C-alpha cells in the first residue's frame, strides 16, 4: 500500500474542468466537469473535493486555471479571475471557492504555468542531463496561453505571462482581421480555435492539411515562437492544446518558418535542432492535470518549510 500522501488537483479550462486525486505523480481518480457558470462549475468541483477528502484526507491542493488570474498573495483579490473574454467569469474567486473547502495547504497558478512545471519535472524538460533551466509551454485551443518554468519555478512578476495577447508581424497580404475581443489580431486572435473557425469559415479540423491558408497560420505561430526564443532563450517551446497537438503537419510548417524567420541569428536554432526545440509536450494531454499535481506538491513543500 502506498505511503505517499493524497494530493488534490483541479485543472480549470475554458470548456471543461478535471478534478483529480493523486498519490505522488500517479493520478488515481479523475472526474470531468463541464465549464459553465462560475457558481455551477466551482460548486461541483468543491463538492467532489469535500467528498474525496472525507474518504481519504488530502495533504495539499493544486489549482491550475485558465486566466488571467491575480496571483499576488498580498492583493485583496488574490486567486480571482481578472477581466477575461470568458463570459461571466471576470471576478470569479477561483482560489476561495476551491481551497476554502479543504483544511490543507493550497497553491494556484495558471494552467499553462502548471503544465510547464510538469514538463520540466517529468516530461520534455527532464529528458536531458538534468531539468531544463528555461521551458515554455503553450496551449492553443479555445484561447492561447503560455507558461514558463524558469529554474524549476513558474515565472511571475507583476502578473503571470500573457503571451496570447502579444502583437506579431503579420504575413504579407494576410487580411484576416482577427478574433480577439480585446485586441483583434493579437496572436490569440489569429490562431486560437475560434480564430481559425472565423478565418476559415469552418472549424480548423475540417480544413485539409494542404490548404494554402495554413501558411499564414504557421507564419503567425512562428512569429510567436521566434519572439519567445529571442526574449527568453528557452530550451524548449512545447505546443499543446487541440490546435497544437492535433495538427502535426502544422507543427512542421511552424518549425521551418521559425528557422527561416530567425535567419541564422540565434546559433542554437538550426534545421538540425529545431525539432527538439519546438515540439509537442512529452506528457501529451496529461501535462495540464499533472501540472495541478506539481502545484500541490509545491504547496505541501512550502508548508513543511514554514
Topology readout:
Layout: E1 6-12, E2 16-23, E3 26-34, H1 38-55, E4 58-65, H2 94-99, E5 106-110, H3 111-122, E6 134-140, E7 144-150, E8 153-154, H4 187-191, H5 193-200, H6 214-232, E9 236-240, H7 241-246, H8 248-262, H9 274-277, E10 278-279, H10 287-305
Parallel strand pairs: 1-4, 4-5, 6-9, 9-10
Antiparallel strand pairs: 1-2, 2-3, 6-7, 7-8
InterPro entries: ATPase_NBD (IPR043129), Carb_Metab_Reg_Kinase/Isom (IPR051804), ROK (IPR000600), ROK_cs (IPR049874)
Cofactor: Mg(2+)
GO molecular function, one term: fructokinase activity
Question: Can you tell me about this structure?
Answer:
The two termini are 29 Å apart. The model has no long low-confidence stretch (mean pLDDT 93). It is built from 10 helices and 10 strands. It has helices at 38-55, 94-99, 111-122, 187-191, 193-200, 214-232, 241-246, 248-262, 274-277, 287-305, and strands at 6-12, 16-23, 26-34, 58-65, 106-110, 134-140, 144-150, 153-154, 236-240, 278-279. The strands form 2 sheets. It has a 5-stranded mixed sheet. It has a 5-stranded mixed sheet with strand order 8-7-6-9-10, sandwiched between helices. The protein has 306 residues and is an alpha/beta fold. The protein folds into 2 domains: 6-110, Nucleotidyltransferase, domain 5 (2-Layer Sandwich), CATH 3.30.420.40; 124-282, Nucleotidyltransferase, domain 5, CATH 3.30.420.40. It is globular, with a radius of gyration of 19 Å. It is 37% helix and 20% strand. α3 crosses α10 (287-305) and α6 packs across α8 (248-262).
Amino acid at each position: 500500500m502506498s505511503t505517499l500522501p493524497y494530493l488534490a488537483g483541479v485543472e480549470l479550462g475554458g470548456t471543461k474542468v478535471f478534478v483529480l486525486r493523486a498519490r505522488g505523480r500517479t493520478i488515481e481518480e479523475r472526474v470531468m466537469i463541464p465549464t459553465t457558470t462560475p457558481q455551477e462549475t466551482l460548486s461541483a468541483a468543491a463538492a467532489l473535493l469535500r467528498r474525496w477528502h472525507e474518504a481519504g484526507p488530502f495533504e495539499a491542493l493544486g489549482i491550475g486555471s485558465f486566466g488571467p488570474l491575480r496571483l499576488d498573495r498580498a492583493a485583496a483579490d488574490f486567486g480571482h479571475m481578472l477581466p477575461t473574454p470568458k463570459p461571466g467569469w471576470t471576478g470569479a474567486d477561483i482560489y476561495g471557492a476551491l481551497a476554502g473547502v479543504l483544511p490543507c495547504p493550497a497553491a494556484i497558478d495558471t494552467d499553462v504555468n502548471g503544465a510547464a512545471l510538469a514538463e520540466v519535472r517529468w516530461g520534455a524538460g527532464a529528458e536531458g542531463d538534468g531539468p531544463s533551466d528555461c521551458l515554455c509551454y503553450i496551449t492553443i485551443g479555445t484561447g492561447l496561453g503560455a507558461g514558463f518554468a524558469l529554474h524549476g519555478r513558474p515565472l511571475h512578476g507583476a502578473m503571470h505571462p500573457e503571451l496570447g495577447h502579444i502583437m506579431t508581424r503579420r504575413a504579407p497580404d494576410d487580411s484576416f482581421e482577427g478574433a480577439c475581443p480585446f485586441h483583434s489580431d493579437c496572436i490569440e486572435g489569429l490562431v486560437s480555435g475560434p480564430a481559425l473557425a472565423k478565418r476559415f469559415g469552418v472549424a480548423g479540423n475540417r480544413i485539409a492539411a494542404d490548404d494554402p491558408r495554413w501558411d499564414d497560420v504557421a507564419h503567425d505561430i512562428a512569429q510567436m515562437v521566434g519572439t519567445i526564443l529571442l526574449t527568453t532563450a528557452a530550451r524548449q517551446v512545447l505546443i499543446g492544446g487541440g490546435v497544437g497537438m492535433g495538427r502535426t503537419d502544422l507543427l512542421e510548417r511552424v518549425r521551418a518558418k521559425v528557422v527561416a524567420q530567425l535567419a541564422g541569428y540565434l546559433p542554437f536554432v538550426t534545421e538540425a535542432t529545431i525539432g527538439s526545440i519546438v515540439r509537442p509536450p512529452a506528457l501529451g494531454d496529461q501535462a495540464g492535470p499533472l501540472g495541478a499535481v506539481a502545484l500541490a506538491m509545491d504547496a505541501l513543500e512550502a508548508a513543511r518549510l514554514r
